[in-house]
């Protein structure tokens, strides 16, 4: 497979994860897409850096935000590593990071890089704007206006 073919196939796997698992809660597909030896190099606070930790995070997000979904703004790939910039959206209907449900709508940006090998996600590095989420949920004050 050429480098471009590898990159395009990897991007398709990441899009399926974003569109079908994260945005629609298809956890059977999660089991298919994530390698058993998956490593998360940037797990969320209190999470574990493995497939079980990613599964737990995805379930927690759907429990806290039942309408959780993502908009992909762009993706780029370098071989088998796909970098994606996206915005997540949802309505806070359950506990999240210790904050009880507020009913507030939130949105936050993320940039992540995921390695795909043999059609499975094997590694993840990411940054999410959780500070913004905490502000939107009323757990942190907004920045003062300049």
TrEMBL record:
Top-level division of the source organism's lineage: Bacteria
Entries under InterPro entries matching the protein: Cyclase_SnoaL-like, NTF2-like_dom_sf
Gene3D superfamilies linked to this entry: 3.10.450.50
Gene Ontology biological process terms from the UniProt entry: polyketide metabolic process
Pfam family, one: SnoaL
Name of the protein: Ester cyclase
The organism of origin for this protein: Bradyrhizobium valentinum
């Amino acid at each position: 497979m050429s480098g471009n073919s590898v990159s395009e196939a990897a991007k398709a796997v990441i899009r399926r994860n974003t569109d079908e698992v994260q945005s629609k809660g298809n956890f059977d597909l999660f089991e298919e897409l994530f390698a058993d030896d998956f490593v998360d190099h940037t797990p969320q606070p209190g999470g574990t850096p493995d497939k079980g930790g990613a599964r737990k995070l995805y379930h927690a997000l759907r429990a806290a935000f039942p309408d959780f979904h993502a908009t992909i703004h762009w993706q780029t790939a370098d071989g088998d590593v796909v970098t994606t910039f996206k915005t997540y959206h949802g309505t806070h209907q359950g506990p999240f990071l210790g904050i009880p449900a507020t009913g507030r709508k939130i949105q936050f940006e993320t940039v992540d890089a995921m390695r795909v090998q043999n059609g499975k996600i094997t590694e993840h590095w990411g940054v999410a704007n959780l500070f913004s989420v905490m502000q939107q949920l009323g757990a942190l004050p907004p920045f003062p206006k300049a």
